[in-house]
């Protein structure tokens, strides 16, 4: 399945699909997750008047904010893509410089200290491409780096799914029973909108 994902995302349609998935994920987290969980602690009602008991029970029920967890997950999933993009840009720029040196020869005193130098280098490489023989041209291959990037993304998705399962589970219960100091006995707490949250 990773190979199919790799082949799909390497095409223009796959890149559009990847961006839509990221945008849809952010839209779901921000537009659906935030309003659903912003008042979670206020609506976590326990059948006790013992001071501090409700706070302790809520901390046991939800050790990390769901919303913050999903934001961290989304940003972490973007990191391999950002690293891959930086790697591709760096390799492509180095390839342009190398091709220019092959065509025109590099002089020791000519540096690329200014952005204008790099723009001129790119223009001259495009204009003078007829000077290059077929044996001088090469195509950059990023399939290994792309496969590694997809592997890390998949690994992060699986790790975050496992962490979410162990922290929260995948179903939100209607009632959460808790017995922890300062609660003097078993306390039942009720979660707001459990069905909607489970979905």
From TrEMBL:
The record's listing under InterPro entries reads: Connexin (IPR000500), Connexin_CCC (IPR019570), Connexin_CS (IPR017990), Connexin_N (IPR013092), Connexin_N_sf (IPR038359)
What name does this protein carry?
A: Gap junction protein
Q: Cite the entry's keywords alphabetically.
A: Cell junction, Cell membrane, Gap junction, Membrane, Transmembrane, Transmembrane helix
Which processes are annotated in GO (biological process)? cell-cell signaling
User: According to its UniProt record, which protein family does this protein belong to?
Assistant: Belongs to the connexin family.
Q: Where is the signal peptide?
A: none
Q: Which GO terms describe its cellular component?
A: connexin complex
């Amino acid at each position: 399945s990773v190979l199919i994902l790799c082949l799909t995302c390497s095409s223009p349609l796959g890149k559009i699909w990847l961006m839509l998935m990221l945008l849809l994920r952010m839209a779901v987290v921000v537009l659906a997750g935030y309003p659903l969980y912003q008042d979670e602690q206020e609506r976590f009602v326990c059948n006790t008047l013992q001071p501090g008991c409700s706070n302790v029970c809520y901390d046991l029920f939800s050790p990390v904010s769901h919303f913050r967890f999903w934001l961290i997950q989304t940003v972490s999933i973007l990191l391999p893509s950002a690293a891959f993009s930086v790697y591709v840009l760096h390799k492509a720029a180095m390839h342009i410089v190398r091709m220019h040196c092959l065509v025109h020869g590099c002089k020791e005193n000519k540096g690329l200290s200014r952005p204008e130098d790099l723009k001129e280098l790119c223009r001259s490489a495009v204009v003078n491409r007829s000077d290059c023989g077929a044996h001088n041209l090469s195509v950059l291959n990023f399939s290994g780096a792309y496969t590694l990037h997809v592997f890390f993304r998949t690994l992060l998705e699986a790790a975050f799914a496992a962490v979410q399962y162990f922290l929260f589970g995948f179903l939100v219960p209607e009632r959460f029973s808790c017995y922890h100091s300062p609660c003097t006995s078993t306390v039942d707490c009720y979660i707001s909108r459990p069905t909607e949250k489970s979905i």
